[in-house]
Amino acid sequence: MAYSEKVIDHYQRPRNVGSFGTSKEVALRKDVGVGIVGAPECGDVMQLQIRINEQGVIEDAKFKCFGCGSAIASSSLATEWIKGKSVDEALTIRNTQIVEELSLPPVKIHCSVLAEDSIRSAIADYKAKNGIAAATATTH
Amino acid sequence: MAVKLPIYMDNASTTRTDPRVVEAMLPYFTEKFGNSSSRNHKFGWESEEAVDLAREQAAALIGATPKEIVWTSGATESNNLAIKGAARMYAKGPSGTTGRGHIITAQHEHKAVLDPCKRLETEGFDVTYLEPPADGVITRAMVAAAMREDTILVTIMWANNEIGTINEVPEIGELCNSRGVIFHTDATQWVGRMPTDVERDHIDLLSWSGHKIYGPKGVAALYVRRRNPRVRLEASQDGGGHERGMRSGTLNIPGIVGFGKACELSRLEMDSERERLLALRLKFERELSARLPVVQVNGHAERRLPQLTNISFGFVEGESLLMGIKDIACSSGSACTSASLEPSYVLKSLGVGDELAHSSLRLSLGRWSNEEEVDYAINAIVKAVEHLRTMSPLWDLHNEGIDVSKIVWQTH
Q: Measured between beta carbons, which residues in chain A are less than 8 angstroms from residue B395?
């Protein structure tokens, strides 16, 4: 399968790989939202951690990904896009934008969906930790 | 010595045609272009002679007689002809009825065996799909336990194409022979690499292919036993009655010449080649296991083909691993490399966990593989696995002491 140049670039030089601590540590941090989506048996697990300041802006984002090159690129791209955005702005990111940016073929669209889900999941975790009601329920 | 890139380590998929094979084939495209069925001129005679020689070369490789070789277009066709042809010939009831007979095969057979069996189920046959144990080896005892009064056919591959495990084929053959049951084996990965004798090993029907043994694509053979017992098949393709009526159609003379030559070369060179490739495969497995934690070589520890290894690298996804070793041509059991979203059904049937099935590489060596290539591949794989583990959330969880297989994941 031929990958786009952008996918290859993200695979070789992934942006913002890492975490803000072990799973136990970040579970206790109120300024960090954690989203883990996917499952090993499906061949894709994405972990997104976001650090949010008091103004509700995503100051930093880190990802880890078990998955194919497109999944790695989608999550790497997602961290680039959400850094510096407010929580509400980050929620407007759609998987179709990721598909377009990375030129993902149809069989890889689920990678972009997973990236969008990881953003929503991390923000939901942050909101839950801080007692903020989720504004709108989202569905796929 | 500099390694020439990319490196080919996918010989279980197909092999490069040996230049000696190509050379033998060439005259049969141009000056010797006759149809071997033309009985009244020189063009026909010289083609018939060439086919006869190839039949001898093919038969010699498996301990058969030339008349027992039926030419086909590929191992898929050989398997279809053997399985459907035998089932329909030895059916216990007429077409349109049920209970026409029992067939035994295994879950980790090639699709070219499984799908003909599934077709036969729709035609009134019963099929038992043996579940392989964790080591992947189908034994005589497993087949014996599945045998029924109405069993008419057993089809068990000699060696598995994904993991290289070797089934108890001579033992299963002996069992079938003693029960009067027809025994077919898909020997595509076995013949030409390992000594084969259809008499000693009690085989009734055996499929193998040219392009897996450094011959051309599009040509294969089916061995059909002629005595003790004489095995009959219902033809799938009707026409001019070629190949004793079992496979009509003008013979692919250049392909058959190449197939024969490839069989001859394999027969003469397999012993030294086997030793050489086994040493390389063992080095592969030894070094990868020593340099990387959480590495699993799939299938039985010893009962495996010398040239093929299937290795899972925990917490790394197979397709991304292939991307990291793009100079090495090999394959993965990862779902992402296939059209379906399921990981390898072969590894799953062995009870290999889904995450390790997604994490597998199949590396298969061949006639032109050398130690420099193996060393290059080992280094490249170690580097790629380490790179991917730095970004694997599962690797982190594992290192935190969390059992990844016990987590309840939120799937889509």
A: 66
CATH of the domain at B294: 3.90.1150.10
Nearest CA to CA, how far is A117 from chain B (Å)?
10
What are the E-state strand segments in B284-369? 295-297, 308-313, 328-329, 331-332, 360-364
B160 residue type, one letter:
N
pLDDT digits (tens, 9 = 90+) for A61-78: 999 999 999 999 999 999
pLDDT at residue A43, rounded to an integer: 84
DSSP B272: H
* Same domain assignment for residues B241 and B289: no
Q: Does B60 touch chain A (CB under 8 A)?
A: no
Strands B182-186, B151-155: pairing is: parallel
> pTM for this one?
0.92
Q: Do A24 and B410 touch (CB under 8 A)?
A: no
Question: B171 and B102: one domain?
Answer: yes
The pLDDT tens digits of the residues spanning B63-90 come to 999 999 999 999 999 999 999 999 999 9
Higher pLDDT, B1 or A93: A93
In this structure, are B258 and B370 located in the same domain?
no
pLDDT at B334: 64
Picking from B323, B395, B400, the nearest residue to A11 by CB comes out as B323
Q: How far apart are CA B308 and CA A129, in angstroms?
A: 51
In Å, how far is A59's CA from the nearest CA of chain B?
A: 21
In a domain? residue B410: no
Residue of A nearest to B404 (CA): A40
Q: Is the pLDDT of residue B341 over 80?
A: no
Measured distance CA(A77)–CA(A10) in Å, rounded: 8
Mean pLDDT of chain B: 94
The count of domains in chain B is 2
**A65 assigned to active site:** no
The residue length of chain A stands at 140
B353 contacts B394 by C-beta, under 8 angstroms: no
Q: What is the CATH number of the domain that holds B193?
A: 3.40.640.10
- For residue B224, give its domain range: 19-266
Whether residue B116 lies inside any domain: the answer is yes
Residues 328-367 of B with CB under 8 A from A: 334-337, 341, 343, 353-355, 358
Q: Give the ipTM of the model, two decimals please.
A: 0.90
Confirm whether B164 is domain-assigned: yes
Q: What pLDDT is attached to residue A132?
A: 87
Average pLDDT of span A89-93: 96
pLDDT tier at B338 (50, 70, 90 boundaries)? low
Q: Which of B266, B289, B318 is the last residue of a domain?
A: B266
Same domain as B274, residue B192: no
Across A29-45, average pLDDT: 91
**Is the model's pLDDT at B397 over the cut of 60?**
yes
Interface test with A, best of B317, B321, B404 (most A CBs within 10 A): B317
Residues B218 and B293 in one domain: no
The answer to whether residues B208 and B311 belong to one domain is: no
The verdict on B274 and B242 lying in the same domain is: no
| Cβ pairs bridging A and B (under 8 Å) | 95
Could you give the strand order of the β-sheet that contains B360-364, starting from the edge strand earlier in sequence?
B295-297, B308-313, B360-364, B331-332
Please report residues of B whose CB lies closer than 8 A to that of A68: 317, 319-320, 323, 334, 336
Question: Last residue of a domain, which of B266, B299, B329?
Answer: B266
Nearest neighbour of A66 by CB, restricted to B315, B324, B411: B315
Q: Which among B320, B323, B404 has the least Cβ separation from residue A40?
A: B404
Q: CB neighbours (10 Å) of residue A80? A: 14
Element (H, E) at A65: strand A58-66
Chain B positions in Cβ-Cβ contact with residue A19 (cut-off 8 Å): 396
